[in-house]
Write a structure and sequence with these properties.
Elements lengths: L1 E4 L14 E4 L1 H15 L2 H10 L5 H10 L12 H11 L9 H11 L11 H26 L1
Antiparallel strand pairs: 1-2
Helix pairs in contact: 1-2, 2-3, 4-6
C-alpha cells in the first residue's frame, strides 16, 4: 500500500492524516493520472508514469530536472550517479561571468543564510558539474527524440 496525498503537496496539501489515504500502487498511479488530466501539472504526470512503471529512475530524474530541480531538493545522488556526472563533465569548461552579472548575483545573495558555503570552490564545482550533466542529458534526449 502507498500513502497518497488527497490534495498533493505541490498544490498546497499537507501531511495531515486527513489529507492522506492508502492506495494500491495501481490506484496511486491512477489517482495521479486523473490529477494530471485535471490540472496538467508535470509533477502528477511524472508520479503517474513512474508508479505505472512507464518510466525508470533515470527518466524520473530527467523529468524532475526539467521542472526546475525543486523536486530533487534534499535528495542525495548515489555514488554511482555522482561518478557518472563527474566522468561526463571531465574537461568541460565555461566562460567566466561578466562583472555586472557577478555583482547582481552577489546583491541577491546578501543576507541569505542558506548560502554560507556557496562561495567555496568545491561547492561551485559540484553545482556546475550537476548542471552540465543535466543539460547534456536533456540535449541527448532531444537529439534522440528528433531523429
Amino acid at each position: 500500500m502507498h500513502k497518497h496525498h488527497i490534495i498533493p503537496r505541490h498544490m498546497g496539501g499537507t501531511n495531515d492524516a486527513s489529507n492522506i489515504v492508502e492506495l494500491t500502487v495501481k490506484e496511486h498511479a491512477e489517482a495521479h493520472r486523473i490529477l494530471y488530466e485535471q490540472h496538467n501539472n508535470r509533477k502528477d504526470f511524472i508520479a503517474w508514469k513512474a508508479l505505472d512503471g512507464q518510466i525508470d529512475k533515470e527518466e524520473i530524474f530527467l523529468e524532475k530536472s526539467s521542472i526546475g530541480g525543486h523536486g530533487n531538493k534534499g535528495k542525495e545522488k548515489s555514488e554511482e550517479h555522482r561518478n557518472k556526472i563527474s566522468k561526463a563533465l571531465t574537461g568541460i569548461t565555461k566562460p567566466p561571468l561578466l562583472e555586472d552579472t557577478k555583482r547582481k548575483i552577489s546583491k541577491t545573495m546578501l543576507g541569505n543564510t542558506n548560502s554560507k558555503n556557496h562561495s567555496t570552490d568545491a561547492y561551485k564545482k559540484k553545482q556546475s558539474e550537476a548542471m552540465k550533466e543535466s543539460h547534456r542529458k536533456r540535449k541527448l534526449r532531444t537529439v534522440s527524440s528528433a531523429g
